[in-house]
Amino acid sequence: MEMEVGIREKKLFHVFHKVPSGDGPYVQAKYAQIVMKDPEGSIIWFWKAINTGDRVDSALKDMAVVMKQLDRSEEAIEAIKSFRWLCSKQAQESLDNVLLDLFKKCGKVDEQIALLKQKLRQIYEGKLFNGRPTKTARSHGKKFQVTISQETARVLGNLGWAYMQKGNYMAAEVVYKKAQMIYADSNKACNLAHCLIKQARYDEARYILEDVWIGKYLGSDDTRTKNRVEELLLELDSKQPPHFLQNIPGLNLDDDFVNGLGLINEWARPKSRRLPIFEEISTFRDQLAC
Length: 290
Prior knowledge:
Subcellular location: Nucleus
Largest sheet: 2 strands, antiparallel
Radius of gyration: 26 Å
Order of helices and strands: HHHHHHHEEHHHHHHHH
Strand order of the largest sheet: 1-2
Oligomer: single chain
Family: Belongs to the MS5 protein family.
Structural class: mainly alpha
Strand content: under 5%
GO cellular component, one term: nucleus
Number of helices: 15
Keywords: Coiled coil, Nucleus, Repeat, TPR repeat
Main location: nucleus
């Protein structure tokens, strides 16, 4: 009877602390990581798990995540590159996702671009979805279904952002537009607008931000999206002169006098811009299109 109670308590312990059952190195690593809050100690056990072949798929990925938390990202990258051949085919995509996060952490933009292009090639060849229209993904412990279109647009969006970090705004623009054609959302729309601002194409950027504001994209109603639209519009206003000063022959926009006219923005517009006129502008534009 006492033995049965002990076994039941052990099972409940593993469930409560969300650690796997057993006594191998991987279980010891998870115990050190989650229960003892000893990340350095967990890495030692993760290495033992990898070297002894104990749940290598999970051990390598989890160790890399812990290393990233300890600012040992370079070491984590080398560990994945050196030992991923020990992992199953099913684990490779997860390892690529961890690598992308590590590359971002280390500022390795070229490596991000190469890996994202590789993922796009795998999607095109049907390797990531195994011929199925959807796949199961996991985020914050929850499972959900992702379509090929959603995943392709997500990877393209990340590629666009990587090109932005390189200052290659023309390439970023092409990638963002392609992503929006496949599966549009407000985040990529704002990134595209930001890309256009960097190329001094202010009217095009404002047009996109207007559409985000009036809710034409998925996620437009999110508070963070609204805040980002306002931030980008403030950036636009700081770079673009008032409309009545544009297209005047012989006007030097770098002239100190014209720069001084930036005060007009403060007089003519409220400091907290909630864009009340966007719906009127949109209605007028729709009428013109008819």
